[in-house]
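Listing S7. Sequence submitted for prediction.
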Amino acid sequence: MVRVSIGDYRVEEGETLPTVNLNDEYEIAWNRDSEKLYTVIVLDEGSVKKSSPEKSVIHLLWTNITDWEEVNVVADYLPPIAYPKPHKYSVYIFEQSCNLYPNIQSRENFNLKEFLKEKTDKNCELNLVDYLSFYGVADPMFIESEDTSEEEMRDIFSEMYDVEKMGEEDYRILAASVYGISKPEKMTTSQIIEKINKILLYRGSV
C-alpha cells in the first residue's frame, strides 16, 4: 500500500486535512521493485462534487523512479490553494514499461486519461499499481462553532458526500469506518451528520 507523509504527518486514506497542513513536501513510499521504473502523480481533482481526473491540477509529477537517486522531475511539488470547500487530492503510482520524459505545457486542466492513452499509443504503458486519496480544505478553524448554524454545518457535509443517495446504514458505516465514531447505530442520522461535521471542521490540529 502507498504511504504518504506530508512533513511529519502520515496521511490516511479518505481523511480531510486543512490545506495549511499540506504545505510541506510529500514523502511517498510503496512496495517498489528496484528493477522497475515508476511514475508518481499527485493531482487536485477539484471540489468533491465535481472531482475528476480528466480536468485536474498537477501538484507533482515524477517519472523514471527507481531508487530515488535519479528521478525525472516533470512538475515539482506545488502546495495546494486554500479553497473554502473541500478538494480531492489523489496520489497515483504507475509502473512504466519504458523511460518517460513527458512535456507538460501546463499544470492546469490536466487530463489523466488522455495522458495515459497518449503514452500507450507510443508503446510505453503506465499500469496503476497503487493509489491514495484525501481531501484538503481551507483551515476549518476559521469557522467558529458558536457562529455556525445547523444549516451551514449540513452544507459543509454535503460538499463531501452525495447525501441524496445515502441511506441510514450508509451514514452508520461512514461514521464507524471512516471517522471512528463509536456506536453510530445508537445515533440518529442528524446526530451522525453533526458529529462528522465537527470532525471536518476541527480535525486539522494534527
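Caption to Listing S7: primary sequence and predicted C-alpha cells for the chain studied. The chain has two domains: 3-137, 141-202. Residues 140-154 have pLDDT under 50 and may be disordered.
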